[in-house]
Amino acid sequence: MKEAPQLYQKKILVLGLAKSGFTAARILHKLGAFVTVNDSKPFEENPEAQELLNMGVTVICGRHPEDLLEEGFELVVKNPGIPYTNVLIESAFEKNIPVWTEIELAYLISEAPFIGITGSNGKTTTTTLLFHMLNQDNKHPLIAGNIGTVASGVAEKAKAKNVIVTELSSFQLKGTAAFRPEIAIITNLYEAHLDYHGSIEDYRASKMKLTENQTTEDYFIYNADQPLLVEHAKDCKAQLVPFTLKGRTTTSISADNEFVYWQGEKLIERSKIILAGQHNLENILAATAATLLSGGTKETIIRVLTSFTGVKHRSQFIVEWEGRKFYNDSKATNALATKSALEAFPENIILLAGGLERNHSLEEIRPYMDRVKALITFGETAQRFTAFAEDCGVPIIVQARKMDDAVEKAIKQSDSGDTILLSPACASWDQYDSFEIRGDAFITAVQHMTEANE
């Protein structure tokens, strides 16, 4: 870990604990800062706060005193989930106190370079795929960020031989200042998180901070099929690496209906890639370009692309049984995500969908419902999905109770050559505590049903 003399004996407020706040507070204390932690959870229910107090960190729990910033803090490090409308954050800006997320701290202390990945969709798949490619090529990658591992904790242990492959949300990027990845990837940009950012302009500006400090020594990999990103690339100082699905190019990475190309040369036949879908092909192009720019080999990339089955709960291939392929896309909690999943399979889909009723429109998926051979629906939205599927002309519509019932009914309606796809287009909270639990229930049910019928 690098020393950070600019933080030594600085009075720093860490706002919000959880994993990122606890790690940041511990590292700042280790660096010699005067750290105060403020968290809403009561002290007696807060083991992280108790541990920090034992280290000598000042802890204020159970409330957020509005006059806290009168104590002369020089920096605030906030949990990414805390909105910028928070009274203490607004007060910090009024007093010209910098507000960071722990991503900035990670950058300051890291001996290893960063590869930063962001976008509205595809961040986790791209990050995981890139990590696998670099790992199999012995490039000593470490994985961090929004994918579940606190970046500053990873940076604390990283060495110069490593590279930190970091998934970054707009929440995290908004709180950066000097952060500079050697390779930056933006998979795509759509409208999202407006309740947090307040406007689409702020959301986009937060995402674009990924490239803000890059220089001509760095690389910016971006989706050239999105005019917004093409426009942004004009202002970027890094070397530009566009990717496109619209046909072969000779200067970067591209794909057509048959092949993936690197600088115009055939890299891999698309039919050999396990990860399905146009949206995943974008992720593949981004991860492949980053691997090649990091010194990875084409042989390793091909090996990974012909074996990688996807990130759990994100169009994850589960098993092939009696000619039927099962996919877990439980992370699809809205119609746009389910649209991307349906695009991946041209016909004969047995779709499992439904969940929490939030009155979201289903119209995004209407153009792809002719690919659905049967709909198995469940949860609060079952009746609405039934009416929607009837209007779309889906020939078979069945309502189920929970996941084991849904999988059993899906198998009964399927034939060899069909795809059985869980892509709910709804949140899980009517029946399951998280999309992960819902996806695990699907996997378990598939395993039980296929093993019982062998």
TrEMBL record:
ATP binds at G119, S120, N121, G122, K123, T124, T125. Residues 313-426 form the Mur ligase C-terminal domain. Pathway: Cell wall biogenesis; peptidoglycan biosynthesis. The keyword Transferase does not apply. Residues 117-290 form the Mur ligase central domain. It comes from the Bacteria. GO terms for cellular component: cytoplasm. It holds the Pfam family Mur_ligase_C. Its EC number is 6.3.2.9. Its main location: cytoplasm. Keywords: ATP-binding, Cell cycle, Cell division, Cell shape, Cell wall biogenesis/degradation, Cytoplasm, Ligase, Nucleotide-binding, Peptidoglycan synthesis. The keyword Mitochondrion does not apply. Coiled coil: none annotated. One of its GO terms (molecular function) is ATP binding. One of its GO terms (biological process) is regulation of cell shape. It is found in: Cytoplasm. Gene3D superfamilies: Mur ligase, C-terminal domain, Mur-like, catalytic domain, NAD(P)-binding Rossmann-like Domain. It catalyses: UDP-N-acetyl-alpha-D-muramoyl-L-alanine + D-glutamate + ATP = UDP-N-acetyl-alpha-D-muramoyl-L-alanyl-D-glutamate + ADP + phosphate + H(+). Belongs to the MurCDEF family. Cell wall formation. Catalyzes the addition of glutamate to the nucleotide precursor UDP-N-acetylmuramoyl-L-alanine (UMA). This is UDP-N-acetylmuramoylalanine--D-glutamate ligase. It comes from Planococcus antarcticus DSM 14505. The gene is murD.
